[in-house]
Amino acid sequence: MLTQAKPIATASREFAVTRTFNAPRDLVWKAWSEADRLAQWWGPKGGKLDVAKLEFRPGGVFHYSMLMPDGATTWWGRFVYREIVKPERIVFVSSFSDAKGGIARAPFDPTWPLEVHNTLTLSEHDGKTMLELHGAPVNPSAEERVSFEGLFDCMQQGYGGTFDQLDEHLAKT
């Protein structure tokens, strides 16, 4: 078990998404923890992900660029891992970033929170894996909280497309 305890303040309402994959938990874990696998499914449907750095450990960083589906726009993002409990839980803070890995404002909304605290849990039942992801902004302003909570439906759709890609990746492996 790898852990790094660090308290973090978040908003009162969390975003949550749940998905069941027809794959064992070990395989789903690898899809989240290995750079070559993440590059095959993370991000918007129709986009292309390039992993700039993956240090899968507490305090480590996943830094990536996403060529968006329009083929012309690139967005950068990063996770900073807070806690890793193999193969059950990954706690990380996500944000948009610049090419050097510094935190940046979201390209789609100047009031989107700078950082989102996420807890991903994986549980296995009869060879299938249930994924639960909960997220909330870190120390948001009132405006950032409203922006985050106002996009719950869009986030459900976005994660739906991303998790469709994960489903396709798992079926191939």
TrEMBL record:
Superkingdom of the source species: Bacteria
Alphabetical list of SUPFAM superfamilies matching this protein: Bet v1-like
Domain Activator of Hsp90 ATPase homologue 1/2-like C-terminal positions: 22-170
CDD domains xrefs: SRPBCC_CalC_Aha1-like (cd07814)
InterPro entries in the record: ASHA1/2-like_C, START-like_dom_sf
Record-stated family: Belongs to the AHA1 family.
Protein name (Swiss-Prot/TrEMBL): SRPBCC domain-containing protein
